[in-house]
Design brief:
The protein is an alpha/beta fold. The protein contains 11 helices and 12 strands.
Length: 377
Amino acid sequence: MKQKIVVILILLAILVAACTTATPTEEAAPVEEGAPAEEMEEISFEGYEAPAPAFNPVPLAAGAQASCAAVAFDGSKPAKIAYMPPATEFNYYQAIGAGIADLAAELGVETFMLAPQSGSDIEGQMGMIQDVLTQGVDAIILSTHDEGAAAPLVRQAIDAGIAVIIVNNDIPNFPTPVNGVVGYSQRKGTYKEGMYAIGKFGGEAKVGVLEGLPGWHSTERIGGYLDAFADFPGMEVVASLPTEWNVETGNTAMMDLLQANPEIEVVITANDYISIGAARAAEALGREDVVIFGNDGDTTGLEDIAAGRWHATVNTTPYLMGQVALHVTMDCLNKVYPGGWTETPTVIVDATNVNDYLCKPENLYPEPSQEYPCVSE
């Protein structure tokens, strides 16, 4: 009887999480004094329809919105847009870029991607942003692992009339006002996956955590899992280690985690690359019994799940996110985007539904290594 009650409570919690209206969290860095921003009460979100498959935008935190009406683009020539992810080492950001590039070709827009090789090279990314500010771009689609370091350069761009759209994020209050934010709800996505893990283990498991680099992304993603576990004290977090978001450090951290804490049954990670490395470490240690949960929807990660190397991920459909980001950027340049956060969807993917994503290579980058049947069609 007790077990049935626990299962019912878990299912109710998942339903509540899935139906919750998208609302940006209020925990964020302060906005700079005197920044070129508008109070959101003066902006109407009625009449604007977000590009599919995104949800219509919701306001950023008060004072965090830079106006698209102030951008310098006048439409007299094709727009020139820089896509600036934190690194080229991650196929995930290449997938966002592929979505941007494919749509740009359809729209006759000039886009280019510029990023350092390593996601830990914050200084390198800042130098590239400085360079782009001198290249006559009309807009920057930006993702960064260090919002604080990027903020002064973002402020310069906004002051120069360059539109700045933050992608792969849900931050309601970037450290300086921006024109818009496009991305999935990181905390809500991993909360759903945390509830999924709770259901799989009946609310009791020893948990290890593999974080990303310190910053908004890692805090929100790991925070979603921990929010879910908070109501289930049997989900005990034994240890938590940092990584640099990549396969190599995920592998090393997982080795350390399992050797120091062999009782761990579940490992939650901040992205799929960490999970890929963690799964390799678990296999090397003969610990394929450890259940690993990731976050992204990277092609390699999806193929790993299909092969049974690890268990599940929050699929954030990065290729489609890139297309939404470019649509929003063009709407801003054309002065029709009201601003705010445009949320893109997420879905929990495991062995039961992973083929339905792998069977559609047109929505993935890179394409899967083999053909997969669509099991639900």
